[in-house]
Amino acid sequence: PYSEDHKEKCMQFAINQLRPKQTGKMNDNTHKKKDDTKSSTNDHQGKPFFILMPNYCACRNHYRSSIMQNATSKNKNAMNDDSEPLDIMYVVPSKPYEYDHPEGTGKDIAPFASIWYCGIPLDKVDAVKEAFRRAYGTESVGLPVKSRSGKKRQGKHGSMTMPPRLVSNLAELKRLNAVPTVKRPNPRQRKKARMTKAKDLMLNPNTLRGIKLDFCQQKAQNVGNKSKINQKASSKRKRK
């Protein structure tokens, strides 16, 4: 769900599962069985996540702070050249997703684009990139490379459409135009813009002419309906 603070809570939970906190202290029960030791070790391994959310979430402060939490606690080399954690990646779909809503809810056309937010344990990052290249082509990871002729290279199956793309940071998302690069106005600013637009429409002579025409047509229709009603009433009186 994309309402209220669901996105923040969902991402916070996913990050905590990806980077579980370790106390660094041994339990008092030192006589654990081997199976118990294995299960406790697995509990401390990061759990990957794949979350589909609006693209603008990647630019929000709450998301940026969430992905930085405990990012370097396990490995000092867990950051890329853009000072972003290596275990967070993004998949940009080859075409925008469309959504079906229950009747009377949502909008026919989604007001935002969606991307996949992926959390991958550090020791699996290279394997994930390699698997993505095998599935979608050698140039499907990172920014696209243009051919010498300036045309986009063909995909794995010979098509000219861009395949899904796996990128590693916000800078690459911006270069792909996969996220908004202009800050969205706050609710008060958006309301003011709507009022200004409505005022401009009202001051437009063509708009006023159209409003007057609609009013005259409606008035004529009402008069016509009244005359029909009066004629029917008079005809009934004559019959009596």
Chart the SSEs and their pairings.
Elements (H helix, E strand, L loop, with lengths): L5 H13 L15 H10 L5 E6 L6 H8 L19 E5 L21 E6 L5 H12 L28 E3 L2 H6 L11 H17 L1 H35 L1
Antiparallel strand pairs: 1-3, 2-3, 2-4
Provide an overview of this structure.
This protein is an alpha+beta fold. It contains 7 helices and 4 strands; from the N terminus they run H-H-E-H-E-E-H-E-H-H-H. The chain has a 4-stranded antiparallel beta sheet with strand order 1-3-2-4, with helices on both faces. 13% of the residues are buried.
Summarize the structure in short.
With 240 residues, the protein is an alpha+beta fold. The protein has seven helices and four strands; from the N terminus they run H-H-E-H-E-E-H-E-H-H-H.
Number of helices: 7
Q: How large is the radius of gyration? A: 30 Å
Distance between the termini: 67 Å
> Strand tally, please?
4
Order of helices and strands: HHEHEEHEHHH
Q: Spans with pLDDT under 50 lasting ≥5 residues?
A: 25-32, 147-160
Taken from the alpha-carbon principal axes, the silhouette is elongated
* Percentage of β-strand residues: 5-15%
Q: What's the main sheet like?
A: 4 strands, antiparallel
Helix content: 40-55%
**Alpha-beta content class:** alpha+beta
Query: Overall mean pLDDT score?
Result: 74
Strand order of the largest sheet: 1-3-2-4
Structural features:
240 residues, alpha+beta, 4-stranded antiparallel beta sheet, 7 helices
